[in-house]
């Protein structure tokens, strides 16, 4: 569910976004690798991070502008869908050297938490 939401929300803010890998990419583009790092049975909560990587052969400004859109949009994003409460928050970003002068890259980390809601409450 979290990946569907991020896909939908990235499209809504005009980010060229793909899960894991882009085939025939158009710059700038962003990919995402999810990781779950905590589960609480008592709270019925899953927690993790989304590693979003942005790529371009154009200017750094293009990547930073996209990063700012993502940061603003996912500042304490909350929703309830399909029996889950979902929270996403911007955590950090860092520009990365690629070893290729024309190719620029940025990494953005979003944090997420999901709770399966008990229908009996």
Q: How would you explain this protein's 3D organization?
A:
This protein has 121 residues and is of the alpha+beta class. 21% of the residues lie in helices and 48% in strands. The chain has 2 helices and 6 strands; from the N terminus they run H-E-E-E-H-E-E-E. The chain has a 6-stranded mixed sheet with strand order 1-2-3-6-5-4, covered by helices on one side. The mean pLDDT is 92.
Summarize the model shown:
The chain is α+β, with helices and mostly antiparallel strands and 121 residues long.
Task: Note the main attributes of this structure.
21% helix; 6 strands; alpha+beta; 121 residues; 2 helices; six-stranded mixed beta sheet
What's the β-strand tally?
6
Q: If you average the pLDDT, what whole number results?
A: 92
Percent range for helical residues? 10-25%
Based on CA atoms alone, the radius of gyration comes out at 16 Å
Principal-axis shape: elongated
What's the helix-strand series? Answer: HEEEHEEE
Oligomer: single chain
* Spatial order of the strands forming the largest sheet: 1-2-3-6-5-4
- What class do helices, strands and sheet pairing give? alpha+beta
**Number of helices, counting only DSSP H or I runs of 4 residues or more:** 2
End-to-end Cα distance, whole Å, is 22 Å
Largest sheet: 6 strands, mixed
As a percent range, the share of strand residues is: over 45%
Low-pLDDT runs: none
């Amino acid at each position: 569910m979290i990946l569907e939401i991020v896909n939908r929300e990235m499209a809504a803010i005009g980010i060229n976004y793909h899960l894991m890998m882009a085939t025939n990419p158009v710059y700038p583009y962003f990919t995402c690798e999810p990781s779950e790092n905590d589960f609480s049975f008592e709270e019925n909560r899953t927690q993790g991070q989304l590693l979003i990587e942005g790529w371009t052969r154009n200017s750094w400004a293009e990547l930073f502008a996209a990063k700012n859109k993502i940061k603003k949009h996912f500042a304490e994003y909350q929703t309830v869908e399909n029996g889950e409460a979902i929270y996403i928050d911007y955590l950090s970003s860092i520009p990365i050297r690629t070893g290729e002068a024309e190719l620029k890259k940025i990494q953005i980390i979003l944090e997420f938490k999901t709770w399966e809601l008990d229908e009996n409450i």
